[in-house]
Each structure stands twice: as C-alpha cells, then as structure tokens.
Amino acid sequence: MKKALLGLLLAATLPVHAAALPQFKAFIAGTRTLAADFTQTVSGKQRQETAHGTMQIQRPGKLRWTYAQPFEQLIVGDGKTLWLYDKELAQVTRRDQAGALGNSPAALLAGSNAIERDYQLREVGKTGKVEWLAASPKKADNTFESIKMGFSANQLVEMELADSFGNVTRIQFKNLQRNVKVNPAQFRFTPPAGVDVVGE
C-alpha cells in the first residue's frame, strides 16, 4: 500500500464529462492554494486498504500530503526536491521533483496552468452531482492506465486511478479550501535526526 500511496502522486493519466472540462479549467485557473482532508481507498483483486490524511498545495510546484492512518507517512515537494518520509521505516527518500512527478495528477494540481499543452482532456460522464473529466498526458507514462477527476460546483471532490496491475485508487476530498493562507514552512522538509536518507 505504501508504494500505492507514493505511486498515486507519481502517476500519470486522467478521465472527464461535458460540464467537467469548464469546471476543471475554472478550478485550476482560480486556485493558488488548496487544502483538504482526504480518504484514500486502494482496491485490488483480493484486498482493500483505506488511508486518511490531509493535503496542502501552493501553486506552482509546492505540495504536502500527510497520511495519518493507518500509518504515518509524509510527502513534501518544495518545487525542486520531493521528500517521502516513512516514519515506521525511519527512512526518507529524496528525489528530483520534476522527474519524480512528471505528468502526474500531483504535478497537474500543483503545476502551472498549461494544462492543454501537456494533457489530452475529454469529458466522460456524470454520476449524481459529480462531473468526470479524463486527462491523458501527451508524453507516455504507463504508471496508471487511467485517472478520473470528479468535479462538483467547480470543486475537486474525487479522484479515481486505475493501474496496470488491476488496482483502483479512489481519493475523496472533504473540507476543501481554496486560496487560504498557507504557512510556507509546510513545504520545507528537513530529515529528522537518525533516519536513513536514500535517493538522489
């Protein structure tokens, strides 16, 4: 599951519906900062695992995802370096952020507004009050076969990602706040004393 959590942020591919595209564009163009609680469920052929946490984004390029349950994990991007801290393993993984995120959903949410330059966007339908958008990166990336983003009232409420191993990751956002003041320290990370640091 830990790999799935990291893979979610380092993924690439997305789905959409008629009213979803203008909602998506309005959401991206009008969002400087973003904060929300989330519930993430990973479903496979014989398993289902759920995690809870919070996320903060400051565009362009800065992000923080904190997993509180069932284990503690922190992912911080300061615009240049992406840090993954696994408290249970007492290990920090350091990677170049641009290379690590690529054309992933995290890069899409935290990046610039050049969405149509990097993605093929299409509408894919409506479920209840949620309009779904599909966005596929123009540069090939096979980490995920598809990623859907659900919008309601110009707010991102859900993401759904399917990978090539038959796993489906669903993230539901709650208490979403846009353009609130965010502490810049949230996007800086210093490895705790005594942990192993691996990576670039």
UniProtKB/TrEMBL annotation:
Keywords: Chaperone, Lipoprotein, Periplasm, Protein transport, Signal, Transport. GO terms for biological process: lipoprotein localization to outer membrane; lipoprotein transport. It comes from the Bacteria. The keyword Chaperone applies. Residues 1-18 form the signal peptide. CDD domains: LolA. It is found in: Periplasm. Pfam families: LolA (PF03548). GO terms for cellular component: periplasmic space. Participates in the translocation of lipoproteins from the inner membrane to the outer membrane. Only forms a complex with a lipoprotein if the residue after the N-terminal Cys is not an aspartate (The Asp acts as a targeting signal to indicate that the lipoprotein should stay in the inner membrane). PANTHER family: OUTER-MEMBRANE LIPOPROTEIN CARRIER PROTEIN (PTHR35869). Monomer. HAMAP family: LolA. Belongs to the LolA family. This is Outer-membrane lipoprotein carrier protein. It comes from Vogesella indigofera (Pseudomonas indigofera).
